[in-house]
Amino acid sequence: MARSLPLVCVALTLSLLAAVPCSAQTNLTQTLLSLQTDSTYSTVATAIVAANLTEPIVSLSDSSGVTLLAPNNEAFNALGNATVSCLLAQPGLVLLSTVLRYHVIAGFYNSTAIVAAAPVSLPSVLGPDLNITVSGSTVQVNTVPVVAPDVIQAIPSAVVHGISSVLIPPGGLQAVQAYCASAPTTPTPVGASSGLLSGFNGLFALAMFAVCALQVLL
Question: Where in the numbering of this chain does the FAS1 domain appear (predicted)?
Fold first, then answer.
């Protein structure tokens, strides 16, 4: 039955398989899908998709493993809707991408590994180090508490830790303030972008699961 698929479907399947390895996509797609359907982390998941960081994170997941420090929705709310909307509306999303890459670490570091290694400085994908310490029973990243350690794990490819504040890279706050102060006054509404991107990511994930199943069946 699978062999009777129209040629266009086969071509689309092969192009998707060539673009993203199934092993990595399965693990990471589940992680990002869980974030986008979780009311606590929907904003960071939307931002990752908007900034076109899904594939780079997938590559890390498939090669070295990846650790994502995910600010919860309250953390983004603390930045203010105007600031978040401004970042989402910037052409090229350079500042948003910069901030998000500061939350990504190459390597699989679940809470057990972090507690065992702390205090430790780990380089972010952006470049600057993240200083990780343990205070009592709480892990802190640049003094920001990890409020939900190991909130999602896809061992040994990906792990997500929930944090209570958005981490700003060195010099990043000034850059964001300067840009948003001079940005156009009609930014893209966060809610509208979130809905569109959430739907797109859900469809993409379902497509990838179907593609991976086809790869097994064919």
Answer: 28-167
